[in-house]
Specification:
There is one protein chain. This protein is α+β, with helices and mostly antiparallel strands. It has one domain. The chain contains 1 helix and 3 strands, in the order βββα.
Length: 81
Amino acid sequence: HFERNPVKLGGPGVIIQCDETMLNHKIKAHRGRMPTQQVWAFVIVDTSFTPARGYAEIVPDRSATTLLSIINTSRISNLHR
């Protein structure tokens, strides 16, 4: 659904917040093994709405190319208004 209808956040004069987060299960009492693969998510939040609107996506890597492509497809540029 979101590939055909991407979430649009931000706009002229609106600041969006971006964050990268590592998703991991918690090891309790120092038992068990650390996960061998790290799963990273990239999150974009528009706080101009109440409640805030957001979009999160699992990313294969945290390179600038990957993150900028997500930002460019998820934000409203000045040209769209």
